[in-house]
Backbone:
């Protein structure tokens, strides 16, 4: 049962776009062009209805995804809202914070049979739900690289890497 109804980004001018509940047309950002335009706008909010009341979350920057397994809202926020690298929260339908997501600390890359190299996570970049209904969060490292990794909201655990790419 979806408890977050009419979940959307709303800009200061009143333009809105739905927070996508499934993997949309852009595999790198996890959002449609319209949602990205509204979410990138300054002074915008993530708004929803629950139990007859409108709720909103107003990060200075933020990407949201609704975890279909827990029916909790995952929001990656800018570093002015929460310090890196732990700049993501899970929100309950009543607007309260369920938990802050702690980064995995490092990403490991191994190529050509060499021992893995470890890089510190600099922060989380965005979030979406993939075609398998799993939450995927982008982890920034080395200033221009992103590793996308599964995150289990219920267990509060990081899963395997989905993809790594240069911005």
Residues:
């Amino acid at each position: 049962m979806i408890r977050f109804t009419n979940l959307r980004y709303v800009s200061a001018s009143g333009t809105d776009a739905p927070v996508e509940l499934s993997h949309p047309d852009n595999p790198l950002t996890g959002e449609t062009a319209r949602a990205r335009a509204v979410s990138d706008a300054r002074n915008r909010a993530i708004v929803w209805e629950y139990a007859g009341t409108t709720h909103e979350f107003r990060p200075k920057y933020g990407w949201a995804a609704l975890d279909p397994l827990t029916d909790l809202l995952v929001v990656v926020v800018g570093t002015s809202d929460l310090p890196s690298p732990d700049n993501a929260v899970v929100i309950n339908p009543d607007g309260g914070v369920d938990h802050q997501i702690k980064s995995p600390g490092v990403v490991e890359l191994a190529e050509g049979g060499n021992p893995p190299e470890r890089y510190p996570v600099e922060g989380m970049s965005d979030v979406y739900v993939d075609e398998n209904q799993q939450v995927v969060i982008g982890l920034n490292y080395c200033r221009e690289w992103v590793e996308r990794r599964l995150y289990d909201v219920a267990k509060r655990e990081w899963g395997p890497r989905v993809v790594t790419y240069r911005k």
In short: The first strand starts at residue 5 and ends at 10.
